[in-house]
Amino acid sequence: MGSVHVQPKERSASNGKRRDVHVAAGAGPRESGDKQTACARVLAVLSAFAATSGASLSLTDISRRAGLSLTTTHRLVGELTEWGALERHDRQYRIGIRVLELAASSTRGLELREIAMPYLMDLHAATKENVHLAVRAGLEIVYVERLHAPGGVEILSRIGGRWPLHATGTGLVLLAHAGYDVQEQVLSGPLQRFTSKTICDSRTLRQALAEVKRTRVAVTDGQITPGAVAIASPVHGADGEVVSAVGVVVPSNGFAPRGTERPPAGGWKQQTIVPAVVTTARRISRALGARH
Amino acid sequence: MGSVHVQPKERSASNGKRRDVHVAAGAGPRESGDKQTACARVLAVLSAFAATSGASLSLTDISRRAGLSLTTTHRLVGELTEWGALERHDRQYRIGIRVLELAASSTRGLELREIAMPYLMDLHAATKENVHLAVRAGLEIVYVERLHAPGGVEILSRIGGRWPLHATGTGLVLLAHAGYDVQEQVLSGPLQRFTSKTICDSRTLRQALAEVKRTRVAVTDGQITPGAVAIASPVHGADGEVVSAVGVVVPSNGFAPRGTERPPAGGWKQQTIVPAVVTTARRISRALGARH
DNA sequence: AATGACGATTCCGCCGGACGGAAAAGCCCC
DNA sequence: GGGGCTTTTCCGTCCGGCGGAATCGTCATT
Q: What is the end-to-end Cα distance of chain A in Å, rounded?
């Protein structure tokens, strides 16, 4: 980095050779709470990869994104690579498969996925639509599994991807069964709008949540993608708590994407998909040990 | 530092208690390469979870497994939990879903899986057998995906799980297409035996590898589990390199587990499954951008 | 070939944060 | 209530992490 180079940003202003100045940088895209602890630096390196999907960064890229000096980055990346958290190809670094190994022992992640998979595949085979399995992480959902339907709508979802609770089918389900404090946090905060149909009013959202909790199924229309209907249902763990949600996303015209039969009265999705989703959720719950 | 502070000699001499004493101790259960760097300690904490599948540890458990003092563990676990790498429930810690988020941007991990998934599901639907997608990590394979067949054999495999190259179908494929040095390392090292049929002779293994490379398919019998035949084929990336392997495991009697038709002459698996696996591998290669 | 720009790597001295021990605070079971 | 165990906090020491600067390697331009 430029020794004499004058950075346009105020960053180098003082050049007080404190070893902490590097943090501020440009108010990084996400991580703002860097406490300059050694552990935080390691995590900052990993965060550099989480930020992007493209996931192939040079050492300098990592250094910039993590807000660390090149020297520090060099050393940390070296250690992480040796351990297997990163992989090096030429001059590009990527997340290593050892991370997958770790993720595999995540109870709410791949372990849950493992158990749910057969039922998700059945649901996918029956509907030919995008099938989702999601858990809640704070005020967002995280997709644990997604079975993609070639002709279906919305390829926005992605394993490990995060979305707001109020705008997704699975999110509504998880929010409806979440604790009071979680609901209040979402209801009191700003509700991001994606389409004209997105529920951004706390009153409406509150009603929707009550309805979802009562009927044990969420059916929403065009909350994120116009013309896409989301249908979701809760999955219970062994202790009865809602641990996850299963959902599908179908075109709102009610037809299956790969033209099958014509929809019956009331719409194909209403007649078939809703019960299918509910049944799938129940089967997974049972497989998890829920007494039902 | 106490520049002016004059340390009484005997003091520093007597207590030679360098802060590293804890490491060596009793030749820790696993990790021996701890270099007592801060980064290594963070990774040691994570390794504590990778060691077990059960994946639910108390603070003291983590401390023991990682070979760190309780104080250090307490602080690191706190930071990791705040970041999302760990999740706390009551007094038990688990791997957090943020790790899944990281793993999702692993090119050789979930990204590969994402692309391959439709073809794997087709193969699974056609064969009703255990379907595997694996990559090579050093001298082992790591399963990136596994579609489980309820009636099938071998539930030993597991996403993120590791197995030797010489004893698995996908491993043979990956080894056959690996570099010379990798092959020599395996051939010169001890070859772990699982069954009486496991190839543990370097001569035989060398021949098998040549055959696999020539035919572009591996068919092995009872290498790990008696009565289980593994069939695997290589997947090529955009640059033509072998990046992965697809495989299925079927009972050696040649019947599909869920009694379908009787096997044709030569065995059902030979007639149907081998071409199916090869075709699947080719389709995935094409989806990855292999010109072929 | 010389030059310049950029990234990766190594070296080095300083110092502040990480470390372990000790003690306190919970927690549970007998 | 006491004893054993785990978790949490406090604190002084000190050593390993830190950034800067220098070096090496690799391209692209002239």
A: 61
Beta bridge partners of B219: B231
Q: How far apart, in whole angstroms, are the C-alpha atoms of residue A33 and residue A20?
A: 13
Query: What is the C-alpha to C-alpha distance for residues B5 and B117, in angstroms, rounded to an integer?
Result: 65
Nucleotide nearest B71, CA–C1', reads: C20
Q: pLDDT tens digits for B233-288?
A: 999 998 899 999 999 999 887 544 444 455 554 455 556 899 999 999 999 999 99
Of the three residues A47, A70, A98, the one that is the final residue of a domain is A98
Q: How many domains would you assign to chain A?
A: 2
Residue A268, φ and ψ in degrees, nearest 5: -60, -45
Residue B127 sits in the same domain as residue B245: yes
Domain end, chosen from B75, B98, B121, is at B98
Q: How do A130-137 and A140-147 pair as beta strands?
A: antiparallel
Rg (CA), chain B: 24
Q: Do residues B140 and B254 both lie within one domain? A: yes
> DSSP string spanning B223-260?
SSSTTEEEEEEEEE-TTS-EEEEEEEEEETT-S-SS--
Residue A102 phi/psi, 5-degree rounding, is: -65, -50
Handedness of CA A34, A40, A41, A42 (dihedral sign): negative
Across the interface, do A159 and B104 touch by the CB < 8 Å criterion? yes
How many CA within 13 A on the CB side of residue B156? 14
Per-residue CB contacts under 7 A with strand C, chain A residues 10-69: 18-20, 36-40, 58-60, 63
Tens of pLDDT, residues A105-128: 888 888 899 999 999 999 999 998
Question: Who among residues 15-74 of A has its Cβ near strand D, under 7 Å?
Answer: 15, 17, 19, 21-22, 38, 41, 68-72
* Number of residues in chain A: 292
- The distance (Å) linking the CA of B1 with the C1' of C15 is 8
pLDDT recorded at residue A267: 56
Q: Same domain for A248 and A174?
A: yes
Residue among B40, B102, B117 minimizing CB distance to A46: B102
pLDDT value of residue B15: 34
Say how far apart CA A283 and CA A262 lie, in whole Å: 28
pLDDT at B54: 64
Measure B32 CA to nearest chain A CA, in Å. 13
Token reading at B161? 């799980």
Each residue of B18-57: pLDDT tens digit?
Answer: 333 333 333 333 344 456 789 999 999 999 998 776 678 9
Give the range of the structural domain holding residue B77, as residue numbers without chain letter. Answer: 10-98
Encode pLDDT of A185-236 as tens digits: 999 999 999 999 999 999 999 999 999 999 999 999 989 999 899 999 999 9
